[in-house]
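Exercise 7.
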Amino acid sequence: MATITTRTVEYPADGLTMIGHLALPAGVDRRPAVLLGPEGTGLSDVERRRADALAELGYVALAFDLHGGRYLGDPEEMLARCMPLLADPDRMRRIGHAALDELRTEPRTDPDRIAAIGYGTGGAIALELGRGGVNLRAIGTVNATTTGRPGEAARIRCPVWAGVGSEDPIMPPAQRNAFTAEMQAAGVDWRLVVYGGALHAFHHPPVDHPVVPGVGYHPQHAQRAWRDVVDLLAECLPVTEDLGA
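Solution. The predicted structure, written as tokens, is:
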């Protein structure tokens, strides 16, 4: 296993002091980078471990914050914050841009080779960065087949991969169809993987607090979705051309 280093980073966004988790691969050279967004509950050890795993693969990875260092384990509190956020594309973009700016300040980051991967609310933010015209190499989302304002998907300049559970009541077939129609109409290079039998947040290990209805862990599909994310990065943001630099 490659030696990585990690540190906490603080940056302002959404009127809060966000507390992200930065993971750096071995070496001192510039590397491609990944912005990693969490579910609506906020940044947890699950996303921190994913950022670490990406660093082990050779990426600079920043798992970004949504709630000013807080993890919202109470479903009502989480929905009270996330629902207005998801209804405000500009606000989502500001949160995403703040994290992206923080990632770009890291000297190891190649600012021209960045991908955005997100889960739930974090995935919606990744998509909004693309709709806002940010130069990304790839966008990957799980549980976030969200649609945007009419016509703005045409500003997405990279492949988009989306994963969703077939039994997800929060992102049901009608929502998935609206998302794919938007991507297709905009001429985006898009892919959608539907994981059979999976609920919302199927990728996230069980938690010790209440969750919203329709959430459930599916260990097999969680592993498959992670492999699909890694494959997306390997295709669109390979690290091999940086090795030995």
